[in-house]
Design brief:
about 65% helix, five-stranded antiparallel β-sheet, elongated, alpha+beta, about 160 residues, Butyryl-CoA Dehydrogenase, subunit A, domain 3, 5 helices
């Protein structure tokens, strides 16, 4: 396995971890500086609970991030299978899946930013979790750029041992 293969796999894994952080942390936005809201849970005065009510745009963002995480799992599985079995086409296909999941994360970020300002009428502030969603999209794009480099996969042996 060469350095670029390790870099691509690490980028895929980092994108997946950032996607999970953005999904499960209660930091998408704060209201009145005491309540933190995430896609799955919210915290009020230090007590966290599972959310049961969402606005329409939050359902859309939650759906996009969940779908992106599921596609990232598929992409990681394809990548590991392609590297272990030394199947170049499978490794290339994982790059296409990862790029699509990065697009979904980026769209979720944009939807959140666009609809957030109009949805909550009282004092609010952006949190940190939506930045992790954007970072997941960026890492997915950057790593899939190397993962989809067909010339590299075809002109060399990406499965050779490191020196």
């Amino acid at each position: 396995m060469d350095e670029v293969t390790l870099l691509v796999g690490g980028g895929y894994l980092l994108a997946f971890v950032f996607c999970l952080i953005s999904l499960f942390t209660p930091g998408w936005y704060w209201t009145n500086q005491v309540a933190q809201y995430g896609l799955i849970q919210y915290c009020f005065l230090g007590k966290c609970q599972i959310r049961t009510a969402w606005s329409s745009y939050e359902i859309g963002v939650l759906s996009l991030v969940c779908f992106a995480a599921a596609i990232m799992i598929i992409s990681l599985t394809l990548f590991v299978f392609g590297v272990v079995k030394q199947r170049i086409r499978t490794a290339e296909l994982s790059g296409a899946f990862m790029m699509f999941s990065g697009l979904l994360c980026s769209v979720a970020f944009i939807v959140f930013v666009v609809y957030f300002e109009d949805s909550i009428p009282y004092e609010k502030a952006y949190g940190y979790s939506f930045v992790f969603c954007l970072a997941a999209g960026v890492f997915a794009f950057l790593s899939s750029k190397f993962g989809l480099n067909l010339e590299r996969w075809q002109n060399s042996n990406p499965f050779q041992n490191l020196p």
